[in-house]
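=== RUN LOG ===
request id: a7f3
mode: sequence -> structure
chains: 1
length: 289
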Amino acid sequence: MARILIAGCGDIGCRLGKQLSKQGHDVFGIRRSAGKVPSDIQPIEADLFAPLPDLPGPFDYVYYIVSAGAFNDIGYYRAYVLGLRNVIKALETQGFSDQIKRLFFISSSSVFTQNNGETVTEDSPTEGKNFASRRLLEAEELALNAPFPGTVVRFGGIYGPGRTYLIDMVLKGHAHCMEDVYSNRIHTEDAVGVLAHLLTVDPLEPVYIGVDNEPTLICDVYEWLAEQLSASVVEHNEPTENSRAQRGNKRLSNAKIRATGYTFKYPSFKEGYTALLEEINEDTEAESV
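=== RESULT ===
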């Protein structure tokens, strides 16, 4: 079994750590507050945005899973570039570089800027058209040029427990969608499943796209949710050229990750949101008892 370091034990990091621990791996997790790290994970209390303390290495694998605390350039720089640089430096200076088999950096599909409904693969061009995509691409370069092998996973929109934005918008009657615009998503359990699965893949590619099997028109997603929730009709808007460019309009392909043998638990938004809605209903019923 492997020794695994998770730098950034938020929602995805904690779920991943718990799953890997159940598989028998020794899992260590960095978080500012050690008390928020599940008991399945050995906590390391540290601030990723400052020089790191001595780490309990060596490690076989490292995951960097951090989200920006603010949607601005400094927030993205700190979360994706500075934090990753600090982790790589600590692993290198503390003498753990030679043992590390792979660094996994969790990025975003927002680095793809296609907006005409094209099918997008890992080989499609990326562009740093704004501060967010520029900082993500900068961090990807750090990960892929670290003193140990690196792999980047570019996730689409992650939804699941605690990530119910679309459901909330539909329920409040605030949902509106741009016609003929594709969206791409992945359920939390599959995001974690993909990351855990990659430990078993050999050889690994430098980049993988993490989305489910079915890119879907965003209006179709809203309309389906409205029907399930018996909610009001969703407002449809004709996208302007500017809004389409800002939001992106692409069909992300997950063919490469499926070719490694990963099978999605929730292959489309319908299976994923059905499970999520059932979970929400169960929680609501439990609270009312």
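=== NOTES ===
The chain has nine helices and 15 strands.
The first helix runs from residue 11 to 22.
=== END ===
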